[in-house]
Amino acid sequence: MIISFVAALAFSFFPAARAADGAIAANSKAYRLRLYHLHTGEHLDVVYRVGYQYLPEGVAALDHFLRDHRTGDEKDYDVREFDLLHDLLAKLGHLDSEIDIVCGYRTPWSNNYLREHSNGVALQS
């Protein structure tokens, strides 16, 4: 699962940057991710950050999209994981590309279910 791999990497965190009046600067860069979930058939095209300001509704949409599709349980992902995906797409020159998601968050129940019904499932995924 790419998200698990991303979580293992170390990277720096930037605090929210706002103008003196609290508004997000108009020239701030938008951070967008486009995802397709292979199991649910769902597509997501979301701006989750503008400049250094994370957008709660965008982050919540990503957390929901990456839920355990068997149980509906969601995980609060570290927003730096989304930044790493965005930065990887930028480095590859594919910011408009859609990422295929095979698996997001897995509850212990889902992981046990998969381990009992298939091969090669990690004990602690």
Task: Walk me through what this model shows.
The chain is of the alpha+beta class. The protein has one domain (2-7, 25-117). 32% of the residues lie in helices and 17% in strands. The chain has four helices and four strands. It has helices at residues 2-7, 56-65, 79-92, 108-117; strands at residues 30-37, 43-50, 53-54, 99-101. The chain has a four-stranded mixed beta sheet with strand order 3-2-1-4. The longest helix is centred in the last third of the chain and has 14 residues, at 79-92. The termini are close together. The relative contact order is 0.19. Mean pLDDT is 82; it is low at 1-21.
Please summarize what this structure is.
The protein has 125 residues and is of the alpha+beta class. The chain has one domain (2-7, 25-117).
Radius of gyration, in Å, reads 16 Å
Let me know the number of strands.
4
Number of separate structural domains: 1
Strand order of the largest sheet: 3-2-1-4
How does the helix and strand content classify structurally? alpha+beta
